[in-house]
Amino acid sequence: MSKYIVGYEIEFFYPVGALLVGVGMLTLGIAVFVARWLSGWRRIAPLLVGLYYVGMIPFQIIFFIIPNGQPSPILLGFWSVAWILFGYAIWSSASTLEQLPGREAE
User: Fold this and answer.
1) Which residues are CB-contacts of 19 (< 8 A; sequence separation ≥ 6)?
2) Which residue would you say has higher pLDDT here, 98 or 46?
3) Nearest to residue 55, comparing CAs of 12, 13, 25?
C-alpha cells in the first residue's frame, strides 16, 4: 500500500526504524538494570524488549526474510507482548510512586 502513496523510498525507513528502536531499547534496558531505576520484575522489562529484538532479527532474516521476503507476523506479535509488559511495568511503577507516603495531592 505504501508504494502507491509515496513510492518505494518509505520501505527503507521500516527496517532502519526497527533497528533504532531495538538498539535503543537494549541500551535503555541495560541502563535501567544497572542503575536500578525500577524495582523487582519491572527492572528487566525494558531489557526484555531489547533482548527479544536482538534474538528475533537473525531468526527473522534466516528463516523468513531470505526465503519469503517478508518477516514473520507471529514473531513480531511476540515482540508486541514484550512491549505490553514494558508498558505495564512503567504504568505500575508510576502507580506505586503515587501511593508513597509524603507525596502531596496534586
Assistant:
1) none
2) 46
3) 25
Cα dist from 28 to 14, 24, 46, 73, whole Å: 21, 6, 7, 25
pLDDT 10s digits, 53-84: 999 999 999 999 899 888 899 999 999 999 99
Handedness of CA 15, 17, 18, 24 (dihedral sign): positive
* DSSP state at residue 39: -
> Distance between CA 42 and CA 23 in Å, rounded?
19
pLDDT band at 85 (very low <50, low <70, confident <90, very high): very high
Residues 6+ apart with CB under 8 A from 64: 70, 71, 72, 75
What pTM did the predictor assign? 0.73
Phi, psi at residue 104, to the nearest 5°?
A: -80, 150
Is 68 in a helix, a strand, or coil?
helix
CA-nearest of 72, 71, 28, 70 to 49 is: 28
Task: Estimate to the nearest angstrom the gap between the alpha carbon of 41 and the chain centroid.
Answer: 16
State the DSSP code for 105: P
